[in-house]
Structures are given as C-alpha cells and as structure tokens.
Amino acid sequence: MKIDLIDTTVRDGNQSNWGATGLDTGMMLQIAPAMDRAGFHAIDFLASTHMGVAVRFKKENPWERLRLMRAACPETPLQFLTTGMRFISWEVASEELMEFAFRLLVNNGIRRFAIMDPMNHVPAMLNMAAITRRAGGEQIVAALTFTLSPLHDDAHFADAARRLTAAGRFDRLYLKDPGGLVTPERARTLIPALMAVIGKTPLEFHSHTTIGLAPFSYLEAAPLGAACLHTAAMGAANGTAQPWTGAVVANLRDLGHSVDVDDEAIAEVDSYFAALAKAEGLVHGQPGEFDRAYFRHQMPGGMMGTMKRQLAEIRRLDLLPQVLQEVERVRAELGYPIMVTPFSQVVGTQALMNVMQGERYKTIPDEVTRYVLGRFGQPAMPMDAQVEARIRDSRRARELEEEPHMASLDALRARIGKGYSDEEFLLRAVMPADQVDAMVAAGPARRGYDPKSRPVMQLLQELTKRKDLSSVVIEKPGLRLELNGGAQ
Fold this sequence. Notes:
This protein is α/β, with parallel strands linked by helices.
C-alpha cells in the first residue's frame, strides 16, 4: 500500500514543542529547498496563530514569509489551518473578513486549507469550506477532531465524517488527534468506521506522541485506509508533536508499504533541524511516557507546559494533580468541549482559578463567559444547569452579550485609514497597531540561517555588552577577525 506524508515541522512541530516561537523566516527558508525535494504531499505551514506570533515575537511580516516560502517550495503545496470563525484575534470574525483573509492567503501562496471547528460542528465546517472555495482554495480538507467523552464513540465520528464528505465540499478528510489519545486498539475500530462512510474521499491521520501512542497507532491506521500520515523532522518531532518522519518511514516500509519520499532530502531536513534545535537551545522532542490520566483530563501538550510554568512561577507546582482533576470536572460541566484551542485554554484557565482561589467559579474569565453565551457555538452535550445559570446570570455576561461583533471591512478601513496594502490592513484589523508598527520598522526578515554561526553570534552579543573592551580578536585556523572601538 502506498502511504503519503504531510510534513508538520514548521507549523505543528514548532508550535507543540517550541511554543510557535522557535523558528523565524530565515530558518525556514534555509531548508525549504530540501523540504520541497522530499516528496511530501503537503507542508503544514501556517495558521493565523503563527501569523500573529511572527508579528508579535519576531517582528517579521507573515505575508512576506509566505511569499518567500512559496517561491522556495514550488512543487509542494503549503497548508493553512483554520480553527473556526476567527483570524489571529479571538474575536469572532464575519464571513466577509474570513473570505477576504483566505483570498489573500491564496494570492500569497497557500494552496491547501485544513478546516477545523473546535466543536466539530458540521454545518460550520461546511460553511467555512464554501467560503474557502469562493476565495480560491485549491485543496480543502476537513479536520475531524478526536476526543473522548460519553458522546464521542465511533458512530458519532462516522456520522460526522459521512455528513462532511457527502456534501462534496471537501477534497480530503483527516482525523485530527491533538491529545495523542487514539490507541492502536481504537484505530482498529475507528479507521474502518470512517472508511465505511467516506467513499472515495482520501483519509489522513494526524496525531501527537504526547503519551507515546501515535507511532503505534499510525502503523495500525495505515493498512486500514489512512493513506496519508502527518510527521515531523528530527528535533521538532515527538514530544507533544507528531512522530518522527524517519522512524515512521522505516516502520511502514518494514511492514511492506511503499513510501515514495526522497530519503536523502529527508536526511538533510533531519540533520538541519536537529542542529538548529541544539544551536538555539530548543527542546529535542522524545515520545512522552504513557500516562493514563491524559484519557481523563486530555490536556494538550502546549497547555500542559503553560500550566506547569505558571504553577512553578508561584512555587505551587504541587497543585498540578489537583488542577488536572479540576480540569476533568470543569470540562464535564461545560458540556465536554474538545480540548483543543481555544477550549483547552478556556477549561484549563477556569480550573486553575478554581483551585488557586479555593472557591469554584469565584472568578470567571471573559472567554469562559463567551463560551457559555455561545460565541464559539454550542457544545455537543448539555452544560451543567447550575454552572450555566451562574455564568449566564452574571452582570459580566449581560455586558458581554451587548459586546459588538467585529466591524465590517468598510468600517475597519474607515477606522484604520488608507495607504496600507490589503495584507497590512488585515494585520492592523486584528492586531494591536503598535505591534504592526514594530514589524514594519524592523524591515525585511533575514533570508537564511546557519546553525554553526549561533555560538559566534552569541559571543559577539555578549562582548558588545562589555563597556571595558577596546578591541576583540577572534581567531581560528584560516580566520582572524579583529574588532576595534574606543573604550567607553
């Protein structure tokens, strides 16, 4: 059986293991030609979250990054993942703004769109697919998000898959397992259930090695019909990200499957990202230890890391088991939302506050209130009546019900002003102006990166902090670099 691969290194690998801030434009461009030669079905490249991170933390233009990467990867489709009716901001966006954003993404180089709804709400996903198609999306993929709850059995997912594919708006379907919770045993029942209802629609499988299951589940899912698997390069793989491409390819071939990739290019990509991770001091992912508690709290890796860091900062890491128990309880009370952005943050933050304050729901974040008010759609199961009433009847809920939705494009243009490109206008419509101003002032991003130069750059940065030096000499065989300046 022939198995294709989607590379997730620069998007999900970067996000899961490195907080979406590990890579800049130059780092991606340096290895892009090898990634293009590798023979991936697509490169999971971008989400609006990463566009915001590029501006906020790297002071880089995400549109420039996309254009440069498209030019460097002419053969391999670049993917954009959308997570509901929002773009960068958590504010609910209009269909007009989403179509405008998608059209700009297409114009700048995105060929493949993955459509995810954090509630797996089929009508919302079908509507988003229609918007994307109008905007010129070439390949549109439905991302059916896996979770565990009293409702989410194989029949539930099969029914959603049937409705998604029967409408004819999606070119492919992928099972998205953000928590890495699909066991090999579940794969043996769930994958056939999906295959039985999707007809000729190709099926992909995307999971995480958070508790070490994904490499085994991939090998079960592939011969059952998941003919495309999502993997990452060494360095960015494993941990809370996707399995390592090299191991997946070797194991699939050992089972007799065909994986038509360029092994030399794959090795080059692996070597590059492993060296980059070492040079930049980034986590080099290893598959997580099996932990059955994840089947209950389902906290994804990124949110788990944030929660541990927050508790460690206040020297209360001992509260983590109690917080995770509270996560289970809050999730049930809120109707079992799928633990994926933004709901993992909604549930996790409320649980943390409940434990830290010693009184449940004493403080209710606005995003929890917006969730209860239906701003993100309706949960698949009813919420706890008492908790829902407490939140809905609050004064803050009444204030948020009057909160205006995002303005029309014309109104946004009138507020922001003229003289901007469409791309910069969109950034200014959904991000603080000072962050976009800083991005513009920073100028073009660097075009390349060499991991071997990192130690030298760190040395120079440290030396420039010294005010007592008048000159610096750096020598190695065949090279002498002398920097002179007056002592200050």
